Amino acid sequence: MAGLRETVMVVGAEKLQVPVPDEIFLTMNTGLDRDWEACQGVIDPIMFAMCAQAHMRKYGTTREQLANVAVKNQSHSVKNPYAQFQNGVTLEQVLNAKRITTPFGLFDCSSISDGAAAVIVTIAE
């Protein structure tokens, strides 16, 4: 379909501030089956934790290595005036944060927040 339009705008949005359970299950794109996995408690943090645990077993990934991902990700927010959290975190803070689901703590998980982005794509001329 390349060339079908000269200019397009692509928009994405997410509204999670006041989540409605039915809407959360309808919009999850993790491949979870609402009628089976979700009702058994297999929601996003649990599913991601299970994947992380499998990765740790298979490749020897450490909790510190996973925590460094959160440190790196949070470091980007320090220079972003629009970031929800702008302080960054240390490795120690991530490792000592409240446990959400093993191996993840508070700083390993995404926050519930709203967001949107748009990009206009057009021809060079």
Could you please describe the fold and organization of this structure?
- A hairpin with a 2-residue loop joins strand 2 and strand 3.
- This protein has a two-stranded antiparallel sheet. Strands 2-3 form a two-stranded antiparallel ribbon.
- 35% of the residues lie in helices and 17% in strands.
- The chain is an alpha+beta fold and 125 residues long.
Explain the layout of strands and helices.
Layout: E1 7-14, H1 21-27, H2 44-59, H3 63-77, H4 91-96, E2 99-101, E3 104-105, E4 115-122
Antiparallel strand pairs: 1-4, 2-3
Low-confidence stretches: none
Going across the biggest sheet, name each strand in turn: 1-4
Q: What's the total count of β strands?
A: 4
Separation, N- and C-terminal Cα atoms = 19 Å
- The global form is extended
- Over the alpha carbons, how many angstroms does the gyration radius reach? 18 Å
Strand proportion: 15-25%
- Assign the structural class, choosing from mainly alpha, mainly beta, alpha/beta, alpha+beta, or little secondary structure: alpha+beta
- Domain tally: 1
Q: List the helices and strands in order.
A: EHHHHEEE
The number of helices is 4
Helix content: 25-40%
Largest sheet: 2 strands, antiparallel
- How would you state the average pLDDT, rounded? 84
